[in-house]
Amino acid sequence: MHRNLPPISTTLLPSIARNVAQAYVAEIPRGYSSLQLRIDVTAASATPSVTPVIEAWDDAAQGWAALLTGVAITGTGTTVLTVAEWATDTANVAAKQKAPDKCRLTMTHADTDSITYSVGAWLHE
After folding, report:
1. How many other CB atoms sit within 10 Å of the CB of residue 113?
2. 8 A C-beta contact, residue 93 and residue 82
3. What is 22-85 written as a DSSP string?
4. The pLDDT of residue 1
5. What local confidence, expressed as pLDDT, does residue 3 receive?
6. Which of 38, 46, 94, 96 might form a disulfide with 90, Cβ 3.0–4.6 angstroms?
């Protein structure tokens, strides 16, 4: 369904230090056919590890399924994950397909070492 939604840039997770071995989940606004997520790590202590996963809702299974899993992030820098029909399939970086209507980002932390990051999203129809 074509909704004529304007492209948007939004914050999914604000920049804060996270130091708990858990998953942080951010819902991605619905109705956009392509998305790029920018994970910007500005500080890391010891040996943190956080793995980003873009997940899609599976109506048949009534649960979340991994659409794109990034590599574990262990230090400062920027990681961009893309789901779009115009993207080139690249392992752990991009999926060449239309973004599902209902999706989310899960950032899973492997340990309690502090890592400061934000996640922004660029969404396009």
Report:
1. 17
2. yes
3. SEEEEEEPSS-SEEEEEEEEEEE-SS--EEEEEEEEETTTTEEEEEEEPPPB-SSEEEEEEEET
4. 46
5. 63
6. 94
Structure tokens at 43: 């500080």
Instruction: Map tokens 């950032």 to a residue.
Output: 107
> 70: how many CB neighbours lie within 10 A of its CB?
20
Closest CA to 92 of 108, 107, 110, 72: 72
| C-alpha–C-alpha distance, residues 32 and 84, integer Å | 10
Token pair recorded at residue 39? 């994970």
- pLDDT tens for residues 16-42? 999 988 899 999 999 899 999 999 999
* Residue 65 pLDDT greater than 90, yes or no: yes
Cβ atoms of 13 and 115 within 8 Å: the answer is no
**Contacts (Cβ under 8 Å, ≥6 apart) of 93:** 70, 80, 81, 82
Read off the pTM: 0.92
Count other C-beta atoms under 10 Å from residue 107's C-beta: 22
Cβ(110)–Cβ(21) below 8 Å: yes
